[in-house]
Structure formats: structure tokens, C-alpha cells
Amino acid sequence: MRFLVLTLFPDAFRDHLEYSMLALAVQRDLVSIDVTNIRDYSHDPHHTADDYQFGGGHGMVMKPEPVFKATEAALAGYSKAERKDIPIILFTPQGEMLTQQVVEELAQKPAIAMICAHYAGIDNRVPDFLATREISLGDFVLTGGELPAMALIDAVSRLVPGVIGSPENVAEDSISSGLLQHPLYTRPAEFNGMEAPDILLSGHHSNIEKWRRQQSLQRTLERRPDMLSTADLSPEDLRYLGTLGYQQPENPE
Q1: 112 contacts 132 by C-beta, under 8 angstroms
Q2: What pLDDT does residue 169 have?
Q3: Using CB atoms within 10 A as the burial measure, which of 100, 146, 188, 242 is most buried?
């Protein structure tokens, strides 16, 4: 998987790429992360990448020219046909929410280009004529698109074979499995009077799996009941949820 990042602040990615699990993935050529400085594609002596808003208003706006040129440079190694399968993502609070489903869809692409906006926003010709997808981390505003880009790189990279040691870890994650993850415990079995559940120490694997499944169901019901409507639930799951007060929605006629 290749990530192409367009940013005004390339150094923001340095620590994340040197000290995280992604660093090892890059060293092993499982993923590559190419960071392009948008300022390098402005043509004035000060490398200006923003300007005042037409019509007045508070805050500066990122100029379209350096963004278009930086993106073209980042994609220069791809043919016109190959580019059709490479999403160009603009991070904005106005975009669709980043979900695991979106992450899994993007993980199937050969590369992902990401534009990190700043200031009051970006010239609207970028989302209208350059970006092919707009994505938001949630209903809040950040100072720039670098953190969303790092989050997307991290989430997608976890799905690249070999990045995570055990594929089962990915399949059993919260959200990926369709339910929230069950509680996790490790040694010591007792810590400051707080004990791990006896069943996890029993060695009875079928009972342990049943307990974990029930804990996932209970957590999902308590914290994200909306997920139950799309989760793959067995009759046994539904019976257990029923003991917790869950009522399965009726299918519309």
C-alpha cells in the first residue's frame, strides 16, 4: 500500500513514522508513505500557500495552484489509467465519516492520496475538481488535516497483510468483528486487590470463548446498540441479548 500525503507541514509525520509500528512496516516495504510539501509548488519567494478570501471573511484560505501542482507531482509515477483507481482524499468536517467500512474499502486501493488542509479552509476548486472523496474524523474541527491523515494511514495499514503479526487480531478487533471487543486481561492475575475473571484462568477454552462472546454482546448493547442491527447474530446470541433486555427490531414488510 502506498500513501501519498500532501501537506504544508511535512515534519509533522516524522515522529509518527520513526517510532510507531508503521516504521517497521515501511522498513519491510509493506507500506510506503511519500510526503510532499505543498509549499514547494508555490512560485513566490516566500512559498505562500494561502491568501485572503474573496468577498471578505475571517481567516486565510489555501490557494488552489500549489495544491493541484503538488498532487500532480505526487501522482506523476502513475499512468492515467492507474490514477482512476487512486482516491484523492480531502480531510474536512464536511466529509463523510471515517468508519471501518470506509477503511476496508480504501485498503483495497493500490495507493491513496491525501490532501491536508489548513487555515480557514481550502479553495473550493480543490474539492470540486481535484479531490475525489471528502472524509471527516467526526463532528469536531482540527487545526489541520495531518492528524486525520495519520489516523487513516494507521487504520488502513493494519489491514495490509504482514503489518500486524496475527491476522486474527485484526479480524477480532472492535468494530471489525461487528461487535465491540470483549475485556482483555494479562498477568498478574491479581493486582492491588483487582482480580482477573476466574474463567479466563480455567483453561476451559469453549467456556472462555462463550464468556468472551457474551461480554462483547453486552458491551455492544450498553455502548453501541446501533451496531447490533448489522451484526451477524446467532440464535444463541439473540437469546443471551434477550436476557439483557434487548428486543430485536422487526423487519419492515
Answers
A1: no
A2: 67
A3: 146
Q: What are the sequence ranges of the domains in the chain?
A: 2-157, 172-253
Asked if residue 9 lies in contact with residue 142, where contact means CB atoms within 8 angstroms, the answer is no
**Which CATH architecture does the domain made up of 172-253 adopt?**
Orthogonal Bundle (1.10)
Q: What is the pLDDT of residue 246?
A: 96
As a whole number, mean pLDDT of residues 4-24 equals 88
Express each pLDDT in 114-138 by its tens digit: 999 998 899 999 999 999 999 999 9
* Residues in the chain, total: 253
C-alpha to C-alpha distance for 89 and 149, rounded to whole angstroms = 9
DSSP β-ladder status, 61-62 and 121-122: parallel
Q: 166 CB contacts (<8 Å, ≥6 apart)?
A: none
Which CATH number is 2-157 given?
Answer: 3.40.1280.10
Residue 233: which residues within 8 A CB-CB, separation 6 or more? 241
